[in-house]
From TrEMBL:
The keyword Oxidoreductase applies. This is SDR family oxidoreductase. InterPro entries: NAD(P)-bd_dom, NAD(P)-bd_dom_sf, NmrA-type_oxidoreductase. SUPFAM superfamilies: NAD(P)-binding Rossmann-fold domains. Keywords: Oxidoreductase. The keyword Oxidoreductase applies. The lineage of its organism: Bacteria, Bacillati, Actinomycetota, Actinomycetes, Micrococcales. Residues 7-178 form the NAD(P)-binding domain. Pfam families: NAD_binding_10. Its EC number is 1.6.5.2. It is an enzyme of class 1 (oxidoreductase). Gene3D superfamilies: NAD(P)-binding Rossmann-like Domain (3.40.50.720), UDP-galactose 4-epimerase, domain 1 (3.90.25.10).
Length: 282
């Protein structure tokens, strides 16, 4: 059994490599790929094989004799579909045994702005004929480090998410799930909706931050228009403003509320609560 991990120089990919090793996978059957040669050198110290790999110019020989490809989605928004398609087609020609793809929550139906590329990739993957597992990863606890810093500085979190809920978990939880799927049976041609065990609102997030900081943190819910004006006053780029406002609108609609316990079932333990991740930011 051999494993290829794309994006291994990124946060999730590196954690997947760590999780495979923690599950007893021999280092020499793991190929960690990425563009950052310095980070690859760090990974090679653990004994895994490494290959410089560019989504825009994938090298076919990397996939020779691979049993499992863990396709961590590209970070280049707007270019993901052709990048992923190129990798899937190479894997198909190389007769890779299966592909595990990290997608987005309810990618086939959600209004999330980033989901369209994941939905298209899922369709390409399913149509390829290669056995697959789709991991629709929910939101990461780590996405809210900026909100924590804002709360520490101002005592407030400002947004337009209302009482919408977010089922977040630590990035490491999702990485461990990918490693479990890669090393155990029963996951072929399955799609998993993954999220944290406990969903929270932004008011509850403020309470969590209050407990850690030892001071009161309030959540100020504003309209989408007011949030846009606030972000504009901070000089943020228009594209980022659109994304942040749209995300809060989606959260208000419970788009990031993932029901069920698929993630904790896969990893065999409770998911990491926000407070445990936030402790690392103190």
């Amino acid at each position: 059994m051999s494993f290829i991990v794309t994006g291994a120089t990124g946060h999730l990919g590196a954690l997947i490599v760590e999780s495979l090793l923690a599950r007893g996978v021999a280092p020499d059957v793991i190929v960690a790929t990425g563009r950052n040669s310095d980070r690859l050198a760090e990974l090679s110290a653990s004994g895994v094989r490494t290959e410089v790999f560019d989504f825009n110019n994938p090298t076919p020989q990397v996939f020779d004799e691979a049993d499992t490809l863990i396709l961590v989605s590209s970070s280049e928004v707007g270019q993901r579909v052709p990048q992923h398609q190129a990798v899937i087609e190479i894997a198909q020609r190389a007769h890779v045994g299966r592909i595990i793809y990290t997608s987005a929550p309810r990618a086939n139906s959600t209004p999330l702005p980033l989901a369209a590329e994941h939905r298209a990739t899922e369709e390409i993957l399913i149509g390829s004929g290669v056995p697959y597992t789709i991991l629709r990863n929910g939101w990461y606890n780590e996405n809210y480090e900026g909100a924590f810093n804002e709360a520490r500085e101002t005592g407030t979190i400002v947004g337009s998410a209302g009482s919408g809920k977010v089922s977040s978990a630590a990035r490491r939880d999702y990485a461990e799930a990918a490693a479990v799927v890669a090393t155990t049976e029963g996951h072929l041609n399955q799609t998993y909706e993954l999220g944290g065990d406990t969903a929270w609102t932004f008011a509850e997030l403020a309470q969590t931050f209050s407990a850690l900081l030892g001071t009161t943190v309030d959540y100020h819910n504003v309209s989408a228009e007011e949030q846009r004006e606030l972000l504009e006053s901070r000089g943020l780029p228009d594209g980022l403003i659109d994304f942040l406002v749209t995300m809060d609108t989606n959260i208000e609609q419970d788009v990031l509320h993932v029901e069920g316990y698929a993630l904790s079932s896969l990893i065999g333990r409770a998911t990491t609560p926000m407070i445990e991740t936030a402790k690392t930011w103190l």
